[in-house]
Design brief:
Strand content: 35-45%
Largest sheet: 5 strands, antiparallel
Number of helices: 1
Helix content: 25-40%
């Protein structure tokens, strides 16, 4: 997956970065871990480009999360 950073005064402003991993926080916020282990919040991206595998992974995680929530109730 690739993400284009929004334009601001940061070093990586407006650049396309390869997202290696996504972390989901307990408050349902997301961190995108890119090359060199830099962390960015999802809100720091203007655009995302995904491959079909990325969409499948998101769908699988969504399903697993829904099953987990159902078990907790």
């Amino acid at each position: 997956m690739r993400g284009k950073r929004r334009k601001d005064k940061e070093l990586w402003s407006g650049k396309w970065l390869t997202i290696r991993r996504v972390e989901i926080h307990p408050d349902d916020d997301f961190s995108m871990i890119v090359e060199d282990d830099r962390h960015f919040n999802l809100r720091e991206f203007d655009e995302l480009k995904m491959h079909p595998e990325d969409v499948r992974m998101i769908a699988k995680l969504t399903r697993l999360n829904a099953e987990k929530i159902k078990e907790e109730v």
